[in-house]
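Run log, item B.
One chain of 141 residues. Sequence copied directly from the ordering sheet:
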Amino acid sequence: MNDMKTEIKEYTTEVSGMTSLSELLDAELGTPCLLIVKNSKISGDISNDIRDFFTKAPFLTALADDEPSDELAELFDMVIPAEGIDEWTARLFKDKSKWAADQITACFVKARTGTAAEVLDCESRAFYRLMAVKNGGSSNE
């Protein structure tokens, strides 16, 4: 029986009630900046498909768990407290539009998957796009 629940919000998608990370592979997750997996008895082997999912995810990943196993925690970009997720994400995305948060997220994702040169290029392009929007000009790309 699948008890997985998915809550898609503007900046985040929160997933809870999973017993296996493989449930993420076919889940509708939206287009979050941050995927938050609330650990509730996730078990089973971590397959290559799961490792690929976390390596290639187009968003940041967070495990909301106060005492995660090392094997589980290493899959995620970060581990956050299990309680107070809404307050934590409100502080994280404070004063950022969804577009700006997406630009910042792209840089962090590139840091996970790209070379140093690719990360610097992504950061440079994002910086100029963000400044153009802030200043009302063009990004000069």
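Observations after the first pass:
- The longest strand covers residues 12-16.
- The mean pLDDT is 87.
Flagged for discussion on Thursday.
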